Structure formats: structure tokens, C-alpha cells
């Protein structure tokens, strides 16, 4: 615990030192007034800006993340022993994800590793599916549809996504459940004898996840394709290029940042999804976030859960970096 | 000519299919709310009923969840709109090299999975609470406080993006003119910047509230023993057997759709007004010149 206090004292000290250095030889206010930032905004407004931004960056972004990472390298101790001699750093939470409990028959922790790999692969699948579904619509909205019609399409796209994600998942339950709409229709039409368990087969989950994050993909693609000058498409067409080559050589290269940003957004949202897997996931299949939640909820092993969460975060970052490198785009172009 | 028609037909069909996929599930869920069966389903249709709505109003847990969600939403608005504004102002003034680092840091919560944000907030305040020896009835273990803080970490970034978009078109000349005429910086802030940003503030507030209201992943970890609407809802949906759920879905959909439409219309009107102002300014410049000429001899 002492190092946590140290972090805090260091922070306070740094602030104090900064103030003292600036106030040397004159009063603090006069010195501050000479700082360009303060000169431009005035003392009151600069104070507001600096305070708000530092509270945000320090107490809501950086420190929580550092604490979580630190916490994930610790033993699961009762509050009374925190800060005691037992409270040392350890790798065992990460070792557990990889190797499982000591003395297990299996060498690796296949249960959790399997869930992790499945989550990543399924998220990639959902991402590609969304890309395939959304590209034609985004292209149509951005280049083909005109004026009021395009605006109406955009509005129609946005509206369903203001509906709560839990309710959206619930809607898919009504659709795909054993007594759901699809089964009822198929049985009613005489195409099926027995209802198909779409939920056990994870069809409902993949459909629900693809549905949930379509908007991210459509708008990333839309924004990118819309900025393409339509004359370029006309030119390619006049020069005799077939439609697929126009897309492959003209539209898609132009839309690369949009494709990259859509893919990273959808992947991260899908990999980090919790509500949809909880509601639509089959009884035998887990999502990695569900494992994390169980460590906090039923497992009551927070450091273990923090370690798993950190693994999730790192793999998401790795995915973003990989996409950025493959598509040669910068972060500013992705997070807009 | 015919191939063109076929292609157009196919495109139309695809669009129809796409929007069917978007709205179909929601419409069916809405229909289930009026079906007189004790399980949420559309088929077989057993007749029209509104009894599930009545049942909903008497559900105390649900009503408590809604109240909590409203308060948390207001808290998030109160925290993340000022932070987002400050964040955008700093971003617009920071140097080029610093801007990249700064932007990466403040935008990172948007790209971080919500689960991770919830956990980091929970762990941070918990450790902080233990290290200062705070009791369980203090702020460090208060579900409302943790949820507001946890949600604001990324909602502030949303707000910042809204403000940045509007600040891009801000004429710094206005500020300089006011300062030259003797206004203090605080006056410039309140009389020029804030009025200019008013539509953005409204949009950011609506966005912040709605994002907070429907957040689940972060809230699940930070809310502790309290309840919000989404938490209650998720619990009920996982059981998934009561038709009053679809009734609730209809109510929430109606509310969010009205809210979202208002948000969109506000945004549109704002854009239209700006365009009109621009056109008018242009037109006026053209019209004024001859008008003035005409008045000069008369004066």
C-alpha cells in the first residue's frame, strides 16, 4: 500500500514544485500571468480548464488504469492483510490464465484459454460480417442516394441504435427463442418438426452482436466514402472499368481509414460485449467478459479478474495496432 | 437497359432487407408486448392486451431502477459536460506535438472496453478507500458516485468530440475583438464562447444523458449493491419469461426514440440555421452595396 501513498505524495509534490518554481522572484499570480496559456485565457478560466482536465486525466483515466494493472499483480487478500507483509507482487494471476491450478492434469488452462480464443475469433467473424453487410449500404448512402432520401436513410439507421442494448438482445431472444418467431413460422409452414435451438447453436449471439454494432461500421464507412469525389467513379466507369474493379481500386482504397476505424470499433465492442453474451449466449458457451465478471461476482477474486481484464485490454490494443499497421492509418483517423 | 433495371431492383431489395434486419426485431418485440400470452412471444397471437403495461407500473424494483438511472444520468451530465468542454478547449490550444499525446490519452477511454473501465474505477477507489481507512458508508464505496465517475471517464470524451467539432468553426477574431474592447477573459468566456457553444452544450448534454442511461458494461461493476434500470433489466431479461419486459421495451423505445429524434432534429436545425446564416451573409453583402449607394444621395 505504501507505494500507493507514494504515488499520491509524488503527484502533490510535483504540483507544489511546479507552483513554487513559477512563483520564484515574484508573486505566484504574476508569474502565472506570464505563462502563455494563462495570459490567453485569464486566471479563472485557465484554473477551470487545468483543474477539469487534470481531474479527468489523472483520477478518471490514468490512475485507475495503473491501479488496476498493479492490482492484477497482487494476491487476493482480505482487507485486514492489505499493506501487510503478504501484500507483494506476483505473477500467479496471469499464470492461472495460462496454466490453470497447480496439479491439474492438463498442462494449460484450456477452459479459460479456449473462451479467450473463441471470443477473439468470434469477434473477428462478427467484424467481417458487419463489414460485408454495411459496405453496400454505406456506399449507396454516400454516393448513390441524393438529398432528402439520403438524410432519411441516415435517420432510419440511427434510430434503432438509441434503443438500449439489453432490449436489442431481448428482441433477438424473441426472434430466435425455442418458441420464438422464426421457429413458429418454420413449424407453422411445415418446414420443421422440432424447433431449432438457435441460442444453443450461438446463431442468436452472432446475429445479436452483428446487429448491435452495425451502426459503428456503417458510419465509419459512410464518412469515408462520402468524401470521395463522385467524378473519380465516373472517370473509372468511362474508362471501362467493371463495377467490382471500381470498388476494389477506387472506392475501397479511398475508404481505407473508414474501414480500419469501423473494424476496430466493432471488434473492440464485440470483444468487450457483456450484455449480449449474457442474454443470447448458449448455456455451454462463455464470453471472456463473462469469465471476468464471474471473478468479481461469484469468484470474489478481484486481482484475478483484474488480470483477465488487463489481458482483454492488451489484446484489444494489439488488434488496433495490427489494423493500423495493415491499413497504414493513424489513431486520429480511427477515433473520430 | 434491362441489366440496369435488374441491378437497381437488387439494390432496392438489399436495402429493404437491411432495414428489415434493423427494424424487424424491434417491431416484433413491440408486438409481443400486446400479445395476451404469459410468455413474451408474438406467435401464436392470442389477442390484444395492455395488461403488461399495468403490471409494469407496479414493479417497485423497476421503478427504483429508473429513478436511480435518472439521477446518475444527471450526475454524468453535470460532470462530463464541463470536463468535455475544458478538454476541447485545451485540445484547441495545445501545441502540435503535445496534441497527439494528449488526444491519445483522453480518447483512450472511448476505445477501452467498458468492462475494463468499470473494473479500473472500482479497483482504484477501493484501494484508495482502504489506504485512507475509509468505511463502507463513505464515497469510496458509494455505487452512485463510482458509477458517475466511471461513466464520465468515457462520456467526457464523447462531449469533448462534440465541442471540438463546433470549436473548429469558431472565429477567434470575436474573442480578440472583445478583449481589445476591454472585456475581461471571464466575460469573453461567458458572453462569447458559451453562447456560441450553446447548441453544442445542449447536444453534449443529451448525448451524455442517453449514453449514461443505457450504459451496462461499466455500470455493472461500479454500481455495487444499487440498481439502475439496465441492471434490473438485464437481470429480468436473463430470466426472460415475463411479457411485461416487452411492455417495458415498448415504453423505453418510445422514450428513447422521441429523445433521439429530438437530438437529431436539433442537430439538423442547427446545421440548417448555420447554412442559412451563411447564405444570408453572402446575399446581404451583394444586396447591401447597391442599397447603400441609393441612400447616399438621399441622405
List the secondary-structure elements of chain B in sequence, H or E: HHHHHHHHHHH
Estimated structural class of chain B:
mainly alpha
- How many distinct beta strands of chain B? 0
First and last CA, distance of chain B:
67 Å
Could you tell me the number of beta strands of chain A?
0
Largest interface: A-B, 94 and 89 residues
Low-confidence stretches of chain A: none
Largest beta sheet of chain A, briefly?
none
Keywords:
heterodimer; A: 336 residues; mainly alpha; 18 helices; 73% helix; 0% strand; globular; B: 299 residues; 11 helices; disordered C terminus
Describe the structure.
The complex is a heterodimer of chains A (336) and B (299). Chain A contains 18 helices and no strands. Chain A has helices spanning 2-23, 28-34, 36-41, 43-72, 92-99, 110-144, 147-158, 165-176, 181-188, 203-212, 214-226, 230-238, 243-254, 256-271, 275-280, 288-297, 302-327, 331-334. With 299 residues, chain B is mainly alpha-helical. Helices cover 81% and strands 0% of the residues of chain B. Chain B contains 11 helices and no strands. Chains A and B meet through α3, α4, α6, α7 and α8 of A and α1, α3, α4, α5 and α6 of B.
Put the structure in a nutshell.
The complex is a heterodimer of chains A (336) and B (299). With 336 residues, chain A is mostly helical.
SSE diagram, text form:
The complex is a heterodimer of chains A (336) and B (299).
Chain A: H1 2-23, H2 28-34, H3 36-41, H4 43-72, H5 92-99, H6 110-144, H7 147-158, H8 165-176, H9 181-188, H10 203-212, H11 214-226, H12 230-238, H13 243-254, H14 256-271, H15 275-280, H16 288-297, H17 302-327, H18 331-334
Chain B: H1 2-32, H2 51-57, H3 60-93, H4 96-111, H5 114-131, H6 143-167, H7 172-180, H8 185-213, H9 217-222, H10 229-239, H11 244-298
Helix pairs in contact in B: 1-11, 2-11, 3-6, 3-8, 3-10, 4-6, 5-6, 6-8, 7-8, 8-11
Amino acid at each position: 500500500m505504501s507505494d500507493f501513498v507514494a504515488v499520491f505524495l509524488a503527484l502533490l509534490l510535483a504540483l507544489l514544485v511546479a507552483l513554487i518554481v513559477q512563483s520564484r522572484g515574484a508573486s505566484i499570480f504574476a508569474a502565472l500571468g506570464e505563462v502563455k496559456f494563462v495570459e490567453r485565457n485569464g486566471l479563472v478560466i485557465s484554473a477551470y480548464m487545468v483543474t477539469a482536465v487534470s481531474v479527468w486525466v489523472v483520477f478518471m483515466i490514468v490512475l485507475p488504469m495503473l491501479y488496476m494493472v498493479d492490482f492484477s499483480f497482487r494476491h487476493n487478500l482480505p482487507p485486514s492483510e492489505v499493506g501487510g507483509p503478504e501484500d507483494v507482487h506476483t505473477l500467479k494471476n496471469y499464470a492461472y490464465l495460462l496454466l490453470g491450478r497447480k496439479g491439474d492434469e492438463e498442462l494449460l488452462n484450456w477452459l479459460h484459454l479456449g473462451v479467450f480464443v473463441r471470443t477473439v475469433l468470434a469477434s473477428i467473424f462478427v467484424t467481417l460480417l458487419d463489414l460485408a453487410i454495411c459496405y453496400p449500404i454505406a456506399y449507396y448512402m454516400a454516393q448513390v442516394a441524393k438529398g432528402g432520401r439520403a438524410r432519411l436513410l441516415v435517420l432510419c439507421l440511427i434510430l434503432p441504435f438509441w434503443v438500449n442494448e439489453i432490449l436489442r438482445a431481448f428482441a433477438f431472444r424473441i426472434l430466435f427463442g425455442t418458441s420464438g418467431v422464426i421457429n413458429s413460422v418454420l413449424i407453422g409452414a411445415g418446414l420443421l418438426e422440432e424447433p431449432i435451438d438457435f441460442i444453443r447453436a450461438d446463431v442468436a449471439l452472432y446475429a445479436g452482436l452483428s446487429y448491435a454494432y452495425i451502426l459503428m461500421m456503417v458510419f465509419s464507412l459512410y464518412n469515408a466514402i462520402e468524401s470521395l469525389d463522385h467524378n473519380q467513379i465516373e472517370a473509372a466507369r468511362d474508362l471501362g472499368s467493371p463495377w467490382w474493379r471500381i470498388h476494389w481500386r477506387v472506392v475501397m482504397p479511398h475508404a481505407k481509414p473508414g474501414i480500419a476505424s469501423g473494424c476496430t470499433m466493432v471488434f473492440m465492442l464485440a470483444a468487450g460485449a457483456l450484455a449480449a453474451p449474457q442474454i443470447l449466449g448458449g448455456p455451454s458457451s462463455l464470453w471472456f467478459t463473462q469469465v471476468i465478471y464471474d471473478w468479481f461476482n461469484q469468484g470474489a477474486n478481484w486481482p484475478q479478474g483484474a488480470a483477465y481484464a488487463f489481458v482483454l485490454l492488451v489484446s484489444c490494443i494489439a488488434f488496433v495496432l495490427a489494423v493500423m499497421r495493415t491499413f497504414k492509418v493513424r489513431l486520429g483517423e480511427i477515433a473520430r | 437497359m434491362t441489366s440496369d433495371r435488374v441491378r437497381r431492383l437488387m439494390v432496392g431489395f438489399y436495402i429493404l432487407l437491411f432495414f428489415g434486419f434493423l427494424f424487424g426485431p424491434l417491431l416484433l418485440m413491440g408486438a409481443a408486448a400486446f400479445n395476451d400470452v404469459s410468455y413474451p412471444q408474438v406467435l401464436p397471437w392470442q389477442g390484444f392486451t395492455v395488461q403488461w403495461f399495468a403490471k409494469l407500473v407496479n414493479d417497485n424494483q423497476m421503478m427504483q431502477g429508473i429513478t436511480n438511472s435518472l439521477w446518475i444520468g444527471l450526475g454524468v451530465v453535470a460532470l462530463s459536460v464541463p470536463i468535455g468542454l475544458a478538454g476541447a478547449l485545451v485540445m484547441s490550444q495545445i501545441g502540435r506535438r503535445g496534441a497527439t499525446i494528449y488526444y491519445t490519452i483522453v480518447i483512450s477511454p472511448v476505445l477501452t472496453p467498458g468492462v475494463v473501465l468499470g473494473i479500473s474505477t472500482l479497483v482504484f477507489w477501493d484501494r484508495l478507500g482502504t489506504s485512507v481507512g475509509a468505511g463502507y458508508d463513505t464515497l469510496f464505496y458509494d455505487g452512485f458516485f463510482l458509477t458517475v465517475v466511471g461513466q464520465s471517464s468515457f462520456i467526457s470524451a464523447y462531449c469533448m468530440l462534440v465541442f471540438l467539432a463546433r470549436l473548429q468553426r469558431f472565429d477567434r477574431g470575436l474573442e480578440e475583438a472583445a478583449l481589445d474592447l476591454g472585456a475581461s477573459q471571464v466575460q469573453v468566456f461567458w458572453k462569447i464562447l458559451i453562447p456560441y457553444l450553446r447548441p453544442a452544450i445542449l447536444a453534449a448534454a443529451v448525448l451524455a444523458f442517453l449514453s449514461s442511461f443505457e450504459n451496462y458494461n461499466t455500470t455493472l461493476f461500479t454500481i455495487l449493491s444499487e440498481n439502475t434500470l439496465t441492471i434490473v433489466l438485464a437481470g429480468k431479461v436473463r430470466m426472460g419469461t415475463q411479457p411485461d419486459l416487452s411492455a417495458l421495451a415498448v415504453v423505453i423505445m418510445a422514450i428513447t426514440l422521441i429523445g433521439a429524434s429530438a437530438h437529431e432534429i436539433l442537430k439538423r436545425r442547427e446545421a440548417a440555421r448555420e447554412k442559412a446564416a451563411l447564405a444570408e451573409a453572402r446575399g446581404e453583402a451583394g444586396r447591401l452595396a447597391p442599397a447603400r449607394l441609393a441612400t447616399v444621395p438621399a441622405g
